[in-house]
Q: What sequence folds into this?
């Protein structure tokens, strides 16, 4: 009997406790709803920031960075098989186009050329005899034609022997500095064996990237000022040699600039360079902050405050220049545009302009 009474008391206590908890939760809910109503009433107007559209000349001057590369570089390779007997230049040597930089053993090639010369001289003498004999009827026209053909064949073999002997003297095909030497006297080479890496730094190339607004104001042969990070106080003259007709995945256009090195060839391939593009004589236009657009520039929509409410306006954007956007149609100079708080706005929302 006592056990039953105890259980009953426990159940009663639990019921009373649950009731108390429910009442507390109900009171908290009412208080929260009242606070929410108060906040909603006080925040009926959305706080926004506003900037007026300006009439200004856009600043298109821009700098773009890249790395200097040689205007000319070459990996000079062997055209013949043989053993190197002389290496006439070393790393760091300056070579002129056509200068002999190494030689291959020429013993067999010299023998081949002497044989070719002897055969040519014999063919010349044979042709002279056939021509004399033909005049007296001693040989036929066919025999004379064969003698002439034999002379032509021996002449071709002599020319080839001279070319082979000439190829034994390996010559530089561009002017520049030997950046790497791959051979030593005694090295056995075959056609395609790398011999020297030659780099011409009398002029260099700088490849930089520009956006669509900038590339529209560039043209080939246009002069560009170039700086090198290691020579901050010096300016080098550059000239645009190439503008890519197609943008990359990031919608930037590669632009190649040719730079004439100074007398001491201070610029070197691999240095960090900066191109300074100057775009003068730009016409004034209506500009607004990029942040004024709802979502992105592609939305072509901005909010304009009118009599305490936000009105959604459609505009036609032009060039994106830094943190500003050109507006071609839709708003004019002095028109205020909302630049922050748009996420909480719809057309007709009340707004509170804050500084």
A:
């Amino acid at each position: 009997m006592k056990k039953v009474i105890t259980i009953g008391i426990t159940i009663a206590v639990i019921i009373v406790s649950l009731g108390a908890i429910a009442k507390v939760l109900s009171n908290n809910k009412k208080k929260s709803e009242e606070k929410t109503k108060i906040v909603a009433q006080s925040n009926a107007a959305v706080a926004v920031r506003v900037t007026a559209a300006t009439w200004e000349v856009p600043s298109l001057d821009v700098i773009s960075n890249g790395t200097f590369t040689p205007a000319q570089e070459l990996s000079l390779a062997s055209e013949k098989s043989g053993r190197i007997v002389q290496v006439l230049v070393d790393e760091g040597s300056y070579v002129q186009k056509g200068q002999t930089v190494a030689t291959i053993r020429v013993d067999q090639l010299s023998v081949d050329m002497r044989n070719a010369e002897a055969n040519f001289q014999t063919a010349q003498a044979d042709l002279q005899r056939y021509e004399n004999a033909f005049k007296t009827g001693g040989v036929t026209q066919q025999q004379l034609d064969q003698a002439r053909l034999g002379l032509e064949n021996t002449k071709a073999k002599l020319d080839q022997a001279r070319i082979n002997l000439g190829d034994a003297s390996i010559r530089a095909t561009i002017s520049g500095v030997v950046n790497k030497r791959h051979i030593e006297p005694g090295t056995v080479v075959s056609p395609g064996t790398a011999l020297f890496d030659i780099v011409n730094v009398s002029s260099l190339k700088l490849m930089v990237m520009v956006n669509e607004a900038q590339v529209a104001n560039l043209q080939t042969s246009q002069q560009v000022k170039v700086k090198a990070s290691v020579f901050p106080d010096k300016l080098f003259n550059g000239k645009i040699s190439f503008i890519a007709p197609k943008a990359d995945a990031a919608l930037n256009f590669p632009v190649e600039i040719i730079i004439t090195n100074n007398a001491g060839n201070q610029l070197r391939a691999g240095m960090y360079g900066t191109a300074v593009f100057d775009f003068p004589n730009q016409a004034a236009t209506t500009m607004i902050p990029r942040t004024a657009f709802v979502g992105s520039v592609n939305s072509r929509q901005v909010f304009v405050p009118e009599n305490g409410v936000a009105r959604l306006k459609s505009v036609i954007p032009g060039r994106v220049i830094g943190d500003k956007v050109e507006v071609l149609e839709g708003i004019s100079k002095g028109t205020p545009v909302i630049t922050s708080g748009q996420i909480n706005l719809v057309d007709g929302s009340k707004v509170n302009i804050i500084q």
The two ends are 77 Å apart (CA to CA). The first strand starts at residue 46 and ends at 52.
